[in-house]
Amino acid sequence: MPAKGKHRRPKSPRFARSIAVAGTGGAALALPLLGATGAHAAAPAAAVAQKAEKAVTAAPVAAKKVVGTKTYRVKTGDYLSKIAAEQSVRGGWKKLYSDNRSVIGGDPALIHPGLKLTVGAKAVSGGATQSSAQAPAPAAKADSAPAPQAAAKSTAGYTLPVAGGSVGTSYKVAGSMWSSGYHTGVDFVVPTGTTIKSIAAGTVVSAGWGGAYGNQVVIQHADGKYSQYAHMSALSVSAGQTVTAGRQIGLSGATGNVTGPHLHFEIRTTPNYGSDVDPVAYLRSHGVAVG
């Protein structure tokens, strides 16, 4: 019996302990092994951190599955950048053109209703979620239209008609779609709304609707040559007006007989159709570089 008025001293809890005996010859070594709880508590902090790091690294990255290709039939009013945007083509009109170059041909602006285009395979995210430890790659910018190249440069009073844009159909390319049997100018592939400039100082001979050319402007220059700008969405000048080199005369578009937005540009010996000369050679002769 404990003494009166005194309490029993509680016993401290004992950790589970076992003894491992390793024998070598006649000697034996007793090794105390902590229980499971004690072992985890005694794990070094560095080891725990290393395990956590491995767990994060091993976290599954977003799985991707590939959606099969499909066929798109070109409709009236279609053009590559429009189709690429509607069909969510990664890489924009350039990727769509690259995948279908053998069908479209050398000019990405010349697509016609009924033409069948292949919309390429597209990777979409699915499955596991990306690890938060990995910074997501920056989202790709939608390429809804051809990217402008270098700004138009003026040399000796002459300049390019557009500030950038790749050359599409070249001069004298043969084809049954042209009444002359060949392309009478050069096409600059630019999106609708691109500023069109007079290549040199001159006088506006005509500005208005030009049938298959859509909205067009024709300018007479000091050397007696005429420059023509076709398929424009808007005009900024009128007949009889004088302009300087680089002066805005309108905006590019897809009016008239076209399958997509671009600038059709000609150099002529008269203001009329059929008197065309090589426009690229003409610009280069005046020190203007054409891509």
What does the model show?
The protein is α+β, with helices and mostly antiparallel strands and 291 residues long. It has six helices and 16 strands. The strands form four sheets. Strands 7, 8, 9, 10, 11, 12, 13, 14, 15 and 16 form a ten-stranded antiparallel β-sheet that branches. A two-stranded antiparallel sheet has the order 1-2. Mean pLDDT is 72; it is low at 15-45, 55-66 and 122-155.
Summarize the structure.
The chain has helices spanning 36-41, 45-57, 80-86, 92-99, 101-104, 279-285; strands at 17-24, 27-34, 63-67, 70-73, 116-119, 122-126, 166-167, 186-189, 195-197, 202-209, 215-221, 226-235, 242-243, 248-252, 263-268, 276-277.
Rounded to the nearest angstrom, the radius of gyration is: 37 Å
Helical run tally = 6
CATH fold name of the domain at 166-285: Glucose Permease (Domain IIA)
How many individual β-strands? 16
Quickly give the structural class.
alpha+beta
Overall pLDDT metric:
72
What is the molecular shape? elongated
> Tell me about the biggest sheet?
10 strands, antiparallel
CATH architectural type of the domain at 166-285: Distorted Sandwich
- The amount of helix comes to 10-25%
Give the SSE order as H and E letters. Answer: EEHHEEHHHEEEEEEEEEEEEH
